[in-house]
Amino acid sequence: MSCIITQGLTAPDCSARFSTPGVAHDDIYIFNYSEIASFTTGAQTGEVSAITFSPSYEVGFKLDIHKNSGQFIEELQVGEESAPFYTQNFSCRVIANDTTTRNAIEGFVGVDVVIAAKLKNGKYKLLGELAGLKMSEQVGDSGKVAGDSVGDTLVFTGEENGKARFFFDTSEAATKVTLDSYL
């Protein structure tokens, strides 16, 4: 989109609108899709304000990701003989190289998950809400020399019947407290 076109357009200026792209260097939250009973719709359309877990709920995971490594892509798929759906893809590089993180990553294999990822604008996107995402790729790297990135690159993919909604509980701080309470 060109920021030069301004005549007849009422919109925020380009510096405000495009200054915060991407996934934040922060924690991502990952939950087992099969352990979620329901989602509470937020105050606005397109928002979720709470997750209700089934009695079999065990634990969610919080993973710290490398700066500028997280990316969320959502693509509309329309076919002549099928209902429209969205392909969701989330990739990131996990920082921790400890046993807990290693075991959590191994636990994601073959399991449908829901991911809450914080965007750089402070809002959380809820991915895999309707059908879950599966880990489709995992690559561990030890690095070669000082300064190399060490950790695991994870890719999750899935197909959803709607666009990803935001997870929001009254404020950015309250949202983080709510997500932390699910761990």
Summary keywords:
seven-stranded mixed β-sheet; 183 residues; single chain; mainly beta; globular; 3 helices
Instruction: Let me know the number of strands.
Output: 11
Domain module count = 1
**Radius of gyration based on Cα positions:** 18 Å
Largest sheet: 7 strands, mixed
Q: What's the arrangement of strands in the largest beta sheet?
A: 2-3-11-8-7-1-4
The backbone outline, from C-alpha atoms, is: globular
Q: Structural class of the secondary structure composition?
A: mainly beta
Assembly type = single chain
**Poorly predicted spans:** none
Helix content: 10-25%
Order of helices and strands: HEEEEEEHEEEEEH
The averaged pLDDT comes out at 86
- C-alpha termini separation: 40 Å
Number of helices: 3
Strand portion: 35-45%
